[in-house]
């Protein structure tokens, strides 16, 4: 984990919320466990500004708890998601009782967690049989112009770029209380203004940790690339959600 990158998002919380894509809806339907008539209780862990929280509401989930450590991100989350219980906390110290949720979903944040401590905490708050769902949503690098934009934004070394085909694996600690995991990849397209496509690079941690001069240069290069390679406004941006899930074992082994 790179601490500077992990702490970089709060400075652009509003832009992050406006420009980052929500997960593909089909991915949420695949991740969420079957539930009784009352519906599942879902923890959005490392919730950021609440993109996943709002997507869960759109998918019909009525009982969501959002936990986020960054004050600025959490403020946007609470404003954009009225009625949702929003708590300060981390993946390594979740402010919820034992066995209190049916699913823990982590959107584009697992790589910031300490996997040993986070796996233990998630296992603690999950009910037996509950699901741990990890998902990453990003502009699809299988599209050549998107791959070029990721290069401009210094993001071509990020783990997400390799998670574009079904069958990818997540390695949990050996003592994590979960069964074997499975994965799926879901694709969709979202219309965005050309300027917003370029500005989205400014919400990437690989850009946020650059100097102000370097960030401005990335933005200029991204604008020029979108104009040259796409040439339309708005732009149909291809997005991919890579999703992985595992179920909590009913007893320790």
From TrEMBL:
Q: Could you give a GO molecular-function term held by this entry? A: methyltransferase activity
Which top-level group of life is the source organism from? Answer: Bacteria
Q: An example of a Gene Ontology BP annotation on this entry?
A: methylation
Which Pfam families is this protein grouped with? Methyltransf_11
Keyword Methyltransferase attached: yes
Asked whether the UniProt record includes Methyltransferase among its keywords, one would answer: yes
**Gene3D superfamilies given for it?**
Vaccinia Virus protein VP39 (3.40.50.150)
Q: Which residues form the Methyltransferase type domain?
A: 43-132
Ordered alphabetically, the record's keywords are: Methyltransferase, Transferase
Q: Which family does it belong to?
A: Belongs to the methyltransferase superfamily.
The entry's protein name is: Class I SAM-dependent methyltransferase
């Amino acid at each position: 984990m790179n601490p500077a990158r992990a702490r970089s998002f709060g400075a652009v919380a509003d832009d992050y919320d406006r420009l980052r894509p929500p997960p593909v809806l089909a991915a949420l339907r695949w991740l969420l466990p079957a539930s009784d008539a009352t519906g599942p209780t879902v923890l959005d862990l490392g919730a950021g500004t609440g993109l996943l929280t709002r997507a869960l509401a759109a998918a019909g989930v009525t009982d969501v708890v959002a936990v986020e450590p960054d004050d600025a991100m959490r403020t946007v989350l609470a404003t954009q998601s009225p009625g949702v219980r929003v708590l300060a906390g981390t993946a390594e110290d979740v402010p919820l009782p034992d066995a209190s949720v049916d699913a823990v979903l982590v959107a584009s944040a697992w790589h910031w967690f300490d996997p040993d401590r986070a796996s233990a905490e998630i296992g603690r708050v999950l009910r037996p049989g509950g699901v741990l769902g990890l998902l990453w949503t990003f502009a699809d690098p299988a599209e050549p112009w998107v791959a070029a934009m990721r290069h401009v934004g210094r993001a071509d070394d990020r783990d997400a770029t390799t998670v574009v085909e079904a069958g990818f694996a997540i390695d949990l600690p050996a003592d994590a209380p979960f069964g074997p995991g499975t994965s799926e990849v879901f694709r969709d397209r979202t219309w965005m203004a050309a300027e917003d496509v370029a500005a989205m690079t400014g919400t990437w941690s690989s850009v946020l940790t650059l100097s102000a001069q370097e960030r401005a240069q990335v933005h200029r290069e991204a604008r020029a690339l979108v104009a040259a390679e796409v040439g339309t406004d708005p732009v149909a941006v291809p997005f991919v959600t890579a999703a992985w899930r595992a179920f909590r074992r009913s007893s320790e082994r």
